[in-house]
Amino acid sequence: MIVVIKSNASPEKRTQLIKWLKSMGLGVHESAGEFQTVLGLIGDTSRVDMDLIESLDIVDSVKRVSETFKCVNRKFHPEDTVVSVGDLKIGGGNFVLIAGPCSVESETQIVEIAKAVKASGASLLRGGAFKPRTSPYDFQGLKGEGLELLKVARQETGLPIVTEIMNLKDLPLFEDIDVLQVGARNMQNFDLLKELGTLHKPILLKRGLANTLKELLMSAEYIMASGNEQVILCERGIRTYSDYLRNTLDLAAVPMLHELSHLPVIVDPSHATGIARMVPPMSLAAAACGADGLIIEVHNDPAHALCDGAQSLTPAAFDALAKKVDSVRKAVS
After folding, report:
1. Considering the entire predicted model, what is its pTM?
2. Measured in whole angstroms, how far is the alpha carbon of residue 61 from the centre of its chain?
3. What does each C-alpha distance from 308 to 5, 127, 299 come to in angstroms?
4. DSSP characters for 16-56?
5. Are the beta carbons of 102 and 132 closer than 8 angstroms?
6. Strands 161-164 vs 265-267: parallel, antiparallel or unpaired
7. I need a labelling partner for 72 at 20 to 30 A (CA). Which of 194, 222, 262, 284 fits?
8. pLDDT-derived band of residue 36, with 50, 70 and 90 as boundaries?
């Protein structure tokens, strides 16, 4: 249920209404916009008398929300959420490029790539330290050592770090990481999501390989319902009948997610396609359809990468793409 407060309502009366609603055992999510304030009621609202609330002089309207996701719902929060990573803003018209290798391999490798992508316009550095792999015999990442190498690259370039957490037991190692990524395989690891909801740092939540948009939003709901409102959604391709690409990039998800939710939406064309030459056209299409950012794999020697070299751009290719993305965004703005 949402309660829309009139623009001329006094702060005292608004506070009294919120206190009364909470006394009924409801959670109240307050979204103060430029022209109106929306109260999102979370919990068992079946006992709430809509007519009584609507009769209050400070209330403009009352509506029931049929969707099971509440905190992430744009009806609860009409204006875009802008996620902050230090001074960097994501969402609400702020576009970001996140770039770096699939896996951290060495200090020389990650620092060289970090310097290159920053020079090309990247605002955040991605890099895997803990790697979920289909085969137990594939490279699993440098783990804690990889996180330390990412910090070295951050110190060298000033780029905030985006890296994946796979297990709750590793959470203490991520205390100094700027953005925690939840990968596609962990999108419905609800214990992990609830724990990340207790943190006060941004979470990049990737859509699962075969999950619906509603399931993605419900996973984001787990994080937000636990108190963390700094969530970034990521479309990274889903498994379909495609036999030439790694996955199918569902770009229609971007405007639909923006319609359903106030959270920023970024796109990962690298994992979606699995082929480096497919990444540029899909990146441009993502920029054109309104994505709030891109997360792209870049490696200084893709042919010898320990993980996902086939889908990684060279620094030179990323530089050329960054310029084209900027042109597309200007053209559609």
Report:
1. 0.92
2. 31
3. 51, 12, 9
4. HHHHHHHHTT-EEEEEE-SS-EEEEEES--TT--HHHHHTS
5. no
6. unpaired
7. 284
8. confident
Whether residue 3 contacts residue 31, with contact meaning beta carbons closer than 8 Å, is answered with no
SS (H, E, C) 194-232: HHHCCCCCCEEEECCCCCCHHHHHHHHHHHHHCCCCCEE
- Say which amino acid occupies 104: V
- Enumerate the β-bridge partners of residue 2: 40, 63
HSE-up of residue 238 (Cα within 13 Å, Cβ side): 16
Closest of 293, 171, 154 to residue 235, by C-alpha: 293
| Residue 258, H or E segment | helix 253-260
Q: How far apart are CA 79 and CA 92, in angstroms?
A: 8
* Count of beta carbons in the 10 Å neighbourhood of residue 212: 12
